[in-house]
Amino acid sequence: MSLNSTPLPGTIGAKQPLAKSSSLFGQSMQKLLKNKLAITGLVVVVMMLLACFIGPFFSPYTDNKVNMAMMNKAPNLKHWLGTDALGRDVLTRVLQAGRISLTVGFASMVLSVFIGSLLGAIAGYYRGIVDQVIMRIADLLLTIPGLPLLFIGGSLLSEWKVPTEYRMYIVMFMLGFVNWPGLARMVRGQMLSLREREFMQAAVVLGLRDRRKLFNHLLPNIFPLLIVIATLNIGGSILSESVLSFFGLGVMAPTPTWGNMIDAANNLIDFQERPWLWIPPGFSIFATVIAINIFGDGLRDVLDPKQKR
Amino acid sequence: MSAYLTKRISYMLIILLAASLLIFSLYALTPGDYISNNIKLSPERKAELREIYGLNKPLLERYGIWMKNAIHGDLGYSLAQQKPVLTLFNEYIWNSFLLAIVSTFLTWLIAVIVGVVSAYKQYSWFDTLMTILIFAAMSLPSFFIGLFLIKILAVDLKWLPPGGMLTTGTNAVGMAYFKEVIHHMTLPVIVMTLLGVGSLSRYFRSSMIDVIKQDYIRTARAKGLKESKVLFRHALRNALLPAITLVGFELPALFGGSIIIEKIFNWPGIGQLYMQSFGLRDYPLLMGFTMLLAILTVIGTLISDVLYQIADPRVRLH
Amino acid sequence: MKKGVYLLTSLLIVGSLVLSACSDQKDTASTSGSTTQTEQGSKDQPAAAPGGESGLNEPFTAADMSKLPAVAKQRTDTIIVGLTDPSGAFTPYFTQSGYDGNVNSLLFGSLVTVDEKGLPIPDLAEKWDISDDQLTYTYHLRKDLKFSDGSPMTADDVAFTWTIQFDKAYDGDSMVPTLPVKGAQEYKEGKAASISGIKIIDPQTISITLEKPNATALVMLGDKVLSKAYYGKDYKFGQLEYIKKLHSTPVGNGPYKLEKFIPGQEVRFVANENYYKGKPKTEHFIYKTSEGDTWQYLETGEIDYSSFSATTENIDKLKSLGFVNIIPYTPSTYGYLQVNLEHEALKDKKVRQALTYGLDRQSIYVDANQGAGSVANIPSSPISWAYTEDGINPYKFDTEKAKQLLEEAGWKEGAGGIREKDGKQLSIHFLGSKSKQTDIFIAVAKENFQAIGVKFEPEVFADFNSLVSKMESGDYDLVSFSTAMLTDPSDGLVQFLDGEIKAYDNPKLKELYEKGLATSDIEERKKVYKEIFQLLNDELPIIFTNYKKTVYGYNGRIDNLAVSPFVGLANSLPDWSLKPAQ
Predict the structure, then answer these.
(1) How far is A264 from chain C (nearest CA, A)?
(2) Given CB atoms, is B135 within the 8 Å cutoff of chain A?
(3) Helix (H, G, I), strand (E, B) or coil at A23
(4) Strands C455-461 and C427-433
(5) A247: closest chain B residue by CA
(6) DSSP states of A217-250 as a string?
(7) Largest interatomic CA distance in chain A
(8) Is residue A307 packed enough to be buried (19+ CB in 10 Å), middle (13-18) or exposed (0-12)?
(9) Of the residues A271, B40, C178, C438, which has the maximum number of CB atoms within 10 A of its CB?
(10) CA A289 to CA B30: how far, in whole Å?
(11) Which three-class secondary structure string do you get for chain B?
């Protein structure tokens, strides 16, 4: 099977199944626009993206320069969100951190959803030996618990001489890789169930080709599920990145991420006395993840052919 | 069924064997060993100790020794804790289990209720409110929400203890002991439930919505069945079906402990022990623990598949 | 120069630190969070806590005991102290973590202990003699010593304790086996049935003979004593497996007995009625397992005592709690950057000096830590009797001087402002453990080194073990470390001589080191160490960074609390008593 004919299942921007019918696409857009909650989510995500990727250009503090005279200052006119323990501007760092956290979240979601749904669908559809091979590999990876695997992966990084600058990509890869087997199982389960449905039996009777059955009939049917999983997954990956930072396995200082910014304020004194150190990154994670999730949820309602209001 | 089980169990054993080799190699690849913790040792002393602990043997030989002992039920002796690995498991796992079983129960209970009601009353104010609340709970990093609750509920308001499992120095027994443990586990259970309930209830809502739209539900309604009967007898059963695969997956989580939660709440569980042991490269313990999880995962998967078949006879097992 | 103290990494991460490893030379280094040493403090202020930067120079007495949380008020005969992670194996010499060392320092007494200056004082031994050739040490035990099970303690037990550390199966981290004890090698190789250097003179007297003088031997050998009747019952040469079964049921001779160990939660002690100084004043003592930030436990009254980095805000917060007494304290350690002397550029003394001048240590270790530290320039803690600033170059932060030294060393500015020599760029690959202190170091050092034309490539490790193995692979230029607790001035020098710092070989230092150990006369030794410090301060085989500065906060109800910089709270604990709550 050629890769380019495969829709990127579950990515937010996956237009292929939508674009094939402009009227359906138009309908969907209309429905989506009516869902205020989802649109709010979308607006927040877009604003967050814009702020993080464009915002830092307008900041006078992008060099992240240490300034001992400005340590731990509360928010003021010059530093809207105050400064951290090294006198760096918190606002600028939160935005720069957002770039990394968002990129890591999206990229690892794409990776795991792509691998997971593709392999899951193939296994569920073809069954037999293909199913066995894929699922046994998934089983094997599933038997090794995720966090320990990430610990080992994190420790191996230095052995492989991965330069600190590239850690971000490795983190993405690790998160994406850890997630796919579970996803594949779920997709496969759904496929197995779908195969038994009447419309598939009809497709078989009609003598449709495998590819057509898989991509025109089966995948669109698991699409709602994939959307839900993919959205939860982006959020989950952003959260996982922060957890990795908490354990010191994520992206390393001085490169800021939301996770390691919260971790840097991880003590009772900062928690009590200096809320500007942890509220901005904490709120950013919270707002972004909740917005992504709500938007994805709205998208699901729209994309699900079975949904009716 | 029994032929199926035999086949599955032999698969399981092969997978476990493959997993044990993979895990063993991964740990062996991890830089550093137990001896390198102590940088004060002279190179000669380090060599001596590696000899004593057998760390200088080739990888496959070490794996062979480990495997041989493991088959005989001996998971080895923790280098850092100076106790047999199995004894340590016994000391720590039940504490983890306690947290996990309570929070898993609460998670499923809340998730099913919220999921079903949300689906049934899709787009109602209840659904919207729940959607927002659930997404809110899912959108905070676990360590962050944990630290935050400790600050508010334990340090500022002093309603709950900040961590641990018992009041230090307590001599409580019986009911008093029980109450004390409950008091201490409230915070971690709240956090674990909050974290778990989100995706599960979305999952239930989503499959419930699917099911409600199915023909047989319409048929059931057309037959004039009572709405509650339709909902619980027909819809819920089918909606829970995909979730059944998840039941088995909970198994390792029940005994594996939560590294993050235990660390934050200073809970004497296996997750915390694992964390410390990883830093120290206490291989017997790491290997034992990871394999334990692997075994539980494999058993959990089997349970899932069997349950799946019982619930949905259309799926044939091979 | 202010003398003060600070620790490299550990303390800051969590803002506070629980007790940790004891006097063993274990686990050096600035590992993150909780793996390192340190406890201690002192009532009557060891020499070096002056210094103006920090907010606390004198003990502070709780101002408002009515704020004491109810939990802490209710305790009448129990004192609780936090301890990171005791494992439950409490046999001295066999413990695998310093935390277990903290536990057994209460369960076992030593023949000789040290006072606040690190000088030997009697404990289980009432006196000792050292032969004129400095080779034979004779310990005279007190009369009627008893183990906690009531059995008598004699010279036999001491001989047994020494002997098993030379067994070939001994896998502990005691430094005793490194001593040149006469006949020890033959015993270890199985050629002799006993160690010829150990002589039991009578039940109260025992002597041990070395092949070479060593001024640290008196204290090292005069450590904790194991009961032969209990720990040696099944001993056969080459077989120490049996002792593992006894780890969780220690029989000691210290102020407390083990009452109960609750894994991952508590170590409970009860006063030992057989202790030679008499039963301790407080019946129960508990080490509570507590990871990470101990603020919450002190604040809620769950523990009575904890150590914190001496930052202004920590001190202010402790004071504002109202029920906490505070004592400032200077740990007996120093922080440093290990330099990879096998790398061409760093072999040049001028480059090492340039890096030292070019690094703003004042900002990194003092200012960014709100005064909870000071800059170090010699391999000795400021509280050591050997400490000196005489003839020591302070390497005050000076970018110009650094540039000039690099020019002299032949490193000229090249593309992108990075210095080059023979077509190679001057870059520094730094390794550090994950901690707040490392974050500070990287942020500041990056700017500092850029200013002098040195490329800076930091790498941070989540766990100490990965860092060590990276270092052992030789792929580094600088690594950030802190020493374990140093008792004798020679302790801080061992690393320059035993091959730990690779490619450093200085015959002059070796000669001086031997000279420093050859005599027990303090004044004589002071002179030798001054010379050594001046030598190392100039040569910089490692870059000295900082001293840490901490405070102890404890429940105001506790009386007679003192913490020794060298043996922690073990010496004063028997005297701790609880005042009635208000």
Answers:
(1) 7
(2) yes
(3) helix
(4) parallel
(5) B260
(6) IIHHHHHHHHHHHHHHHHHHHHHHHHHHHHTT-S
(7) 78
(8) middle
(9) C438
(10) 33
(11) CHHHHHHHHHHHHHHHHHHHHHHHHHHHHCCCCHHHHCCCCCHHHHHHHHHHHCCCCCHHHHHHHHHHHHHCCCCCECCCCCCEHHHHHHHHHHHHHHHHHHHHHHHHHHHHHHHHHHHHCCCCHHHHHHHHHHHHHHCCCHHHHHHHHHHHHHHHCCCCCCCCCCCCCCCCCHHHHHHHHHHHHHHHHHHHHHHHHHHHHHHHHHHHHHHHCCHHHHHHHHCCCCHHHHHHHHHHHHHHHHHHHHHHHHHHHHHHCCHHHHHHCCCCCHHHHHHHHHHHCCHHHHHHHHHHHHHHHHHHHHHHHHHHHHHCCCCCCC
All domains of chain A in start order, with CATH? 34-52+84-307 (1.10.3720.10)
Residue C154 to residue C201: CA distance in whole angstroms: 11
> Per mean pLDDT, which of A102-111, B18-27, B92-101, C294-303 is the most reliable?
B92-101
Do B301 and A136 count as a contact with CB atoms less than 8 A apart?
Answer: no
Pick the residue from chain A with its C-alpha nearest to C433. Answer: A248
> Closest-CA residue in chain A for B26?
A152
Dist. CA A277–CA A263, nearest whole Å: 10
Reported as a single tens digit per residue, the pLDDT across C552-573 is 999 999 998 888 888 778 888 8
The overall average pLDDT reported for chain A is 77
- Taking CA–CA distances from B37, the nearest residue in chain C reads C465
Task: Tell me yes or no: is domain B93-279 CATH 1.10.3720.10.
Answer: yes
Residue in B32, B154, B169 closest to C78 by CB: B169
Length of chain C: 582
Q: How many C-beta neighbours within 10 Å does residue B238 have? A: 18
The per-residue pLDDT for C195 is: 94
Contact partners, residue C422, CB within 8 Å, separation at least 6 = none
CA distance C362 to C341: 25
Q: How does pLDDT run across A298-307, given as a tens digit for each residue?
A: 777 776 655 4
Decide if A35 touches B, using CB distance below 8 A.
no
Q: CB C89 to CB B81 under 8 A?
A: yes
Residues in B touching C266 (Cβ below 8 Å): 166, 168-169
Query: pLDDT at position C172, please?
Result: 85
Domain ranges of chain B: 93-279
Q: Average pLDDT of C205-209?
A: 95
Of C166, C231, C235, C181, the residue nearest C211 (C-alpha): C181
Q: Which two structure tokens, joined as six digits, stand for B191?
A: 């956090």
Residue range A149-196, pLDDT digits in tens:
777 777 776 666 666 667 777 778 888 887 888 888 888 888 887 877
ipTM of the complex: 0.81
Average pLDDT value for residue range B124-150: 84
Q: Collect all residues of chain A within an 8 Å Cβ-Cβ radius of residue C16.
A: 267
* pLDDT tops 50 at residue A81: yes
Q: Which amino acid is at C40?
A: Q
Neighbours of C510 (CB within 10 A): 12
For residue B314, what are its two tokens? Answer: 């259309």
Would you state the structure tokens that stand for residue A309, as one six-digit string? 């209001």
- C15 neighbourhood in chain A, CB within 8 Å: 267-270
What is the C-alpha radius of gyration for chain A, rounded to an integer number of angstroms?
22
- Report the alpha-carbon distance of residue C304 to residue C298 in Å, rounded: 6
How far is residue C48's CA from residue A42's CA, in Å, rounded to a whole number? 60
* A 155-184 residues with CB < 8 A to C: 155, 158-159, 161, 163-164
Cα separation, B253 vs C139, whole angstroms: 57
C-beta of residue C139 within 8 angstroms of C-beta of residue C159: no
- Per-window interface: B 66-85 vs A, CB < 8 A: none
Closest by Cα among C245, C27, C440 to B77 = C245
pTM of the predicted structure, to 2 decimals: 0.82
Q: Name the H helices within C323-398.
A: 344-347, 349-358, 361
